[in-house]
Amino acid sequence: MREVSFHLASGRILGIVGRTGSGKSTLSRLLFRLYDPQSGEIRVGNHPLPTLQLRSLRHHIGMVTQEVQIFHASVRDNLTLFNSTISDEQIKQALVEVEMSGWLATLPNGLDTIIGAAGEGLSAGEAQLLAFARVFLSNPGIIVLDEASSRLDPATEHRIEQAIHKLLAGRTALVIAHRLKTIQRVDDILLLENGRIREWGTRADLEKDPNSHFSRLLHTAPASDNSIANQPELATDRD
Ligand SMILES: Nc1ncnc2c1ncn2[C@@H]1O[C@H](COP(=O)(O)OP(=O)(O)OP(=O)(O)O)[C@@H](O)[C@H]1O
Ligand SMILES: [Mg+2]
């Protein structure tokens, strides 16, 4: 990534868009300190990341990646990530938030049910909802959501939308958005291209500007398709 400079005010939601390989996930991994930039600086609340304790930083940021990791362990351990201070009541409440309590009711041993490695028996959408439940339980102030681009059935899609809505309320968030519905929720847009910023502004301003790439992206997204991934408007000038 080069010459990337932007500010996200507390309580705002930034939507990050750009074609595959443009650097969207990289940006989220830099914030979570899965690796550090070779030059430049990222600050949270004006504190440079290396001055914050890693554990504290990761405690305050809830990260939902494109691929959800489900462990061969009980539902409880999968949701609490082995934090035994979280009560079963809290876990059940988090499952209610993501509309997965019906799913819990079908399990033979409730929260003690062992779910398979790689999430056997779970649909991609259900795995996403469990990942959201994890974030509800850790209750971080900052959310990084790298939305999965997998196609979901309309009912699951609806549950995901509802869960994202609740998850983002009252938090600061960076959302790598693949769904139009998610994009419509964000305050600001950062359009990346080849590791650089192509556009950055409020969603309202970019939507209004007929010459913005973002507005053209919205207009080229087929109405029948809820996904904005790899729209022609995201193509680089070279293509
Ligand atoms: N650890 C790494 N070291 C070197 N290059 C990397 C590393 N991780 C990713 N890249 C490269 O950086 C570029 C951006 O990758 P990134 O995963 O951020 O893309 P993305 O915008 O999230 O794409 P997608 O929409 O497909 O998820 C890609 O060319 C990728 O191959
Ligand atoms: Mg990515």
TrEMBL record:
SMART domains: AAA
UniProt xrefs under InterPro entries: AAA+_ATPase, ABC_transporter-like_ATP-bd, ABC_transporter-like_CS, P-loop_NTPase, Type_1_exporter
Keyword line: ATP-binding, Nucleotide-binding
Limits of the ABC transporter domain: 1-219
Official protein name in the record: ABC transporter domain-containing protein
PROSITE patterns according to UniProt: ABC_TRANSPORTER_1, ABC_TRANSPORTER_2
Keyword Nucleotide-binding (UniProt): yes
Organism the protein comes from: Dictyobacter halimunensis
Tagged with keyword Nucleotide-binding: yes
Region of interest called Disordered, as start-end residue ranges on this chain: 220-239
Chain segments annotated as coiled-coil in the UniProt record: none
